[in-house]
Amino acid sequence: MMDLKEYLQNKTVQIDRSLLALLPPSSAYPEIIHESVSYSIFAGGKRLRPILCLAGAEALGGDSSELLPVACALEMIHTYSLVHDDLPAMDDDDYRRGKPTNHKVFGEGIAVLAGDALLTLAFEVLAAYGMRVKEEKRSQVLAVIQEIARAAGAFGMIGGQAVDLQSEGKKIESATLEYIHRHKTGALFTAAVRAGALLSQATEHQLAALSRYAENFGLAFQITDDLLDIEGSAEVIGKPVGSDIRNEKVTYPSLYGLENTKRLAAETIEKAVEALSDLPGDAEPLRLLVQYLLKRDR
After folding, report:
1. pLDDT digits (tens, 9 = 90+) for 165-195
2. Choosing a second label site near 16 at 20 to 30 A (CA), which of 36, 70, 73, 133?
3. How far apart are the C-alpha atoms of 140 and 142, rounded to whole Å?
4. Could you give the CA distance from residue 64 to residue 206 in angstroms, rounded to a whole number?
5. How far apart are CA 173 and CA 171, in angstroms?
6. Is the model's pTM score more than 0.90?
7. Nearest one of 129, 126, 10, 138 to 76, comparing CA atoms
8. 190: closest CA among 213, 209, 158?
9. Is 248 left (phi over 0), alpha (psi -120 to 50) or beta?
10. Number of neighbouring beta carbons within 10 Å of residue 54
């Protein structure tokens, strides 16, 4: 049986090396913005989105090492969203991954600019990758760029964040809560897996299966995240627990109760696993990753 911890460590090393090569050095002028970007990129993230991109390729027998620039671009977009999400105008968090949030170290203005820099650099990296691949593969790269842009934009992550902000302190229905989670968190997970699949010549059937997996992974991740905000440890998670309650957010536990939420998480994870039943490559990393969500403590 595959050792998931070892797999994640190996992939994280690959991704971090690639990120280091792609980011401007902290000494580049103006130093403050590059220091701010590096601070958040290398603050100890789990690298789930880039790993899902690489694992999506492996599930179809693709060479995941070729997709490292795409994986890194996804991590840049995710990190930008966290930098902005922590700002006082958004979730107003002082700690992320056990360290002071970006705006607490560099100030709100530089934190906004660091997020902007990461987002734009991500698409520079994707475009450069597209220019390097063989001509017959460029249409696939363009399709991936379009998918990632949509997932990060107003019909994806930003749209989910907007509805989330509007919903604070209000009673919302389960459909609205699911919209928030599927877009704010789930959209980028789905784009990550689909990017790996599209760049590995997925058939329509294979792409649909991996999309089902990714959509359920994203929803299960957010459901378990809601649970961690209640049952988790601030020392382990690296940020204060109970922020959802303080911000008067409706969550799965507040809407359904703890036990029903745990059951829903398990059911969603099972749907993700079922979607992997007929793939030609090594889908074991994807299976273990989604099953890990029920056990995670951060």
Report:
1. 999 888 899 999 999 999 999 999 999 999 9
2. 133
3. 5
4. 17
5. 7
6. yes
7. 126
8. 213
9. left
10. 27
